[in-house]
């Protein structure tokens, strides 16, 4: 059997070939290259993930190897969680390379073949719902500005037409941002940051002359916030559960 016929038979074993990734385009940054790859992948019904990053001693990434999310071998796990995708050892692979002399990135196709069908509904794919670094930063900024989640989602979809995030994506991202911001803070610091939320007018919190509060060190005890001054008590008297209570006053 000649080699051309053998190659033809071998290619028939695959469900599709994504030749669209072959490009001579030069990218100004790794982020620009990744955005190009992801947007094209979504339009083709495939999901591309990072397989490996090569870094210099200083931490700078000069090479990135990408693969299909179906790449690798499927492993049976003892879990009740049902996965929407399974590994099929898909051979698809790309390589992005940084060049110092041009301060730019290029993309090379190592293998353009897939041994599975396209994803029919990208919205249902968990990886497709993930936010890029720029989108995550935008959600973080808008969250600090108290923008409603549905408005944040609308802005993301206006900026990126291929964005398939859902309201749940935004809520999960907001929770992650808040958890990161609270790392290393004492319960007292978190408490004082939350206190203005319990006033009808948050600015009133700045004008109270004194605040009697129980200092908290841990969980499972009750703490009551009580105001003293020329302004009335807030509508809601907040309580927190903590251990090891010691009272003091700040003015």
Task: Give keywords.
3 domains; Protein FAR1-RELATED SEQUENCE; 251 residues; Zinc_finger_SWIM; 3-stranded antiparallel sheet; AFT; alpha+beta; DNA-binding transcription factor activity, RNA polymerase II-specific
Helix content: 25-40%
Kindly report the average pLDDT value: 74
Portion of residues in beta strands equals: 15-25%
* Global geometry: globular
Tell how many strands the DSSP assignment holds.
11
- Counting DSSP H or I runs of 4 or more residues, the number of helices is 6
Distance between the termini: 90 Å
Structural class: alpha+beta
Write out the strand line-up for the largest beta sheet, numbering strands in chain order: 2-3-4-5
Low-confidence stretches: 1-12, 207-251
Output the helix-strand order: HEHEEEEEHHHHEEEEE
Largest sheet, if any? Answer: 4 strands, antiparallel
The tally of domains stands at 3
Radius of gyration: 26 Å
Organism: Mikania micrantha
Protein name: Protein FAR1-RELATED SEQUENCE
Pfam family, one: AFT
GO molecular function, one term: DNA-binding transcription factor activity, RNA polymerase II-specific
How would the blueprint of this fold be written?
Elements: H1 3-12, E1 16-17, H2 30-44, E2 48-55, E3 61-68, E4 93-99, E5 104-111, E6 113-114, H3 133-144, H4 149-159, H5 167-182, H6 187-194, E7 210-215, E8 222-224, E9 226-228, E10 239-241, E11 246-250
Antiparallel strand pairs: 1-6, 2-3, 3-4, 4-5, 7-9, 7-11, 8-10
Helix pairs in contact: 3-5
Question: Can you give me a brief rundown of this structure?
Answer:
The chain is of the alpha+beta class.
């Amino acid at each position: 059997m000649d080699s051309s016929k053998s190659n033809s038979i071998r290619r028939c074993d695959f469900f599709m070939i994504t030749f669209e990734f072959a490009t001579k385009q030069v990218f100004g940054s790794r982020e620009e290259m990744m955005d190009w790859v992801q947007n094209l992948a979504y339009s083709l019904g495939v999901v591309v993930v990072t397989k490996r990053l090569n870094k210099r001693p200083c931490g700078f990434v000069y090479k990135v190897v990408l693969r299909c999310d179906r790449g690798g071998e499927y492993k049976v796990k003892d879990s009740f969680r049902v996965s929407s995708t399974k590994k099929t050892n898909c051979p698809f692979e790309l390589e992005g390379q940084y060049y110092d002399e041009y301060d730019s990135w290029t993309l090379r196709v190592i293998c353009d073949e897939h041994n599975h069908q396209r994803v029919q509904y990208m919205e249902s794919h968990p990886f497709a719902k993930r936010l890029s670094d720029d989108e995550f930063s935008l959600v973080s900024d808008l969250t600090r500005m108290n923008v409603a989640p549905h408005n944040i989602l609308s802005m993301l979809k206006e900026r990126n037409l291929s964005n398939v995030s859902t309201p749940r994506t935004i809520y999960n991202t907001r929770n992650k941002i808040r958890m990161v911001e609270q790392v290393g803070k004492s319960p007292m610091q978190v408490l004082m940051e939350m206190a203005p939320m319990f006033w009808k007018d948050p600015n009133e919190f700045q004008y109270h002359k004194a605040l009697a509060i129980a200092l908290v060190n841990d969980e499972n005890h009750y703490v009551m916030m009580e105001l003293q001054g020329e302004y009335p008590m807030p509508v809601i008297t907040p309580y927190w559960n903590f251990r090891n209570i010691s009272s003091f006053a700040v003015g």
